[in-house]
Amino acid sequence: MALRSEPTARQLRLAVELRRLRDAAGITAREAAALLGVTAPVISQIESGIAGVSEKRLRRLASHYACTDEEFIDALVAMATDRTRGWWGEYRGLLPTSFLDLAELEHHSTHRSDVEFLFIPGLLQTPEYARATFSSRIPGLPEEELELRVRHRMQRKAILEGPDPTPYEAVIHEAALRIRVGGRAEARAQLSRVLELSGADHITVRVIPFDLDGFGGAWSPVMLADGSVPRLGTAVRDAPHGTGFIDSEAQLAVFRTLFRRVEAVSLDPARSRDFIHRVAKEL
């Protein structure tokens, strides 16, 4: 099997999970290699994501690692044998790899959630709002890449608008509703779009108003993507140096707790819709 020059985030996640299973079992890479009848470098290649692993070998490793979570093993097998050629592949070499990895992560997620304080979540944005957001980048983007980023963001909405949509929850601070990323007309159109999408059965939008007492959770945005099993969930954080994918159980627990706390203090969906409608009229 040919080695990969640039494994995707999903391939790297499989590699990390196999390494975690081996470490938990107290088995060395050399010992794991002997169990499969291969050399230690092969195990290293599998655990770094540059080499794939067959279903047969993966199940043998899981057995030797004493992993008895069949649902988790089946999920790993699905990751190892997936040959999906998603729409995001057309952007390879044109946009940063993190854009492709995010689209692939969302495509395979079973539930998506966002907490945003300054911007409307990407999955709810209009093309005009997305364009204004990317246009504010310093240094500025070439026009061609700007339009590629907008088109990519719009295509990500496939998980919400397809025949089998992914359940989605968004908690949005009032600041994000009122900040005019573009002009007044664009801002109103954006809020109208949020209201339209929030009417779907699989989409829930909640609002955190400015006058909420005791709210100290306004820090950086959080994106969560649930996997087919809880252990395969991922948190995504945007930072000046790039997008980070977080998958350790301890850190995921922190982000899930944060989301639940923010969700608990936000307005319920019905009151949130009324609130967004009022803000749109005030713009």
Describe the secondary-structure layout.
Blueprint: H1 9-25, H2 29-36, H3 40-47, H4 55-64, H5 70-81, H6 97-108, E1 111-116, H7 127-135, H8 143-155, H9 158-161, E2 168-173, H10 174-178, H11 184-198, E3 203-208, E4 222-226, E5 234-239, E6 242-246, H12 249-265, H13 269-282
Parallel strand pairs: 1-2, 2-3
Antiparallel strand pairs: 1-4, 4-5, 5-6
Helix pairs in contact: 1-4, 2-3, 4-5, 7-8, 11-13
Q: Would you kindly provide a written description of the structure presented here, covering whatever features stand out?
A:
The chain has 283 residues and is α/β, with parallel strands linked by helices. Helices cover 51% and strands 12% of the residues. It contains 13 helices and 6 strands. The protein has helices spanning 9-25, 29-36, 40-47, 55-64, 70-81, 97-108, 127-135, 143-155, 158-161, 174-178, 184-198, 249-265, 269-282; strands spanning 111-116, 168-173, 203-208, 222-226, 234-239, 242-246. It has a 6-stranded mixed β-sheet, with helices on both faces. α1 (9-25) runs parallel beside α4 (55-64) and α4 runs antiparallel to α5 (70-81). It starts with 8 loop residues before the first helix and ends with a helix. The relative contact order is 0.12. The model has no long low-confidence stretch (mean pLDDT 93).
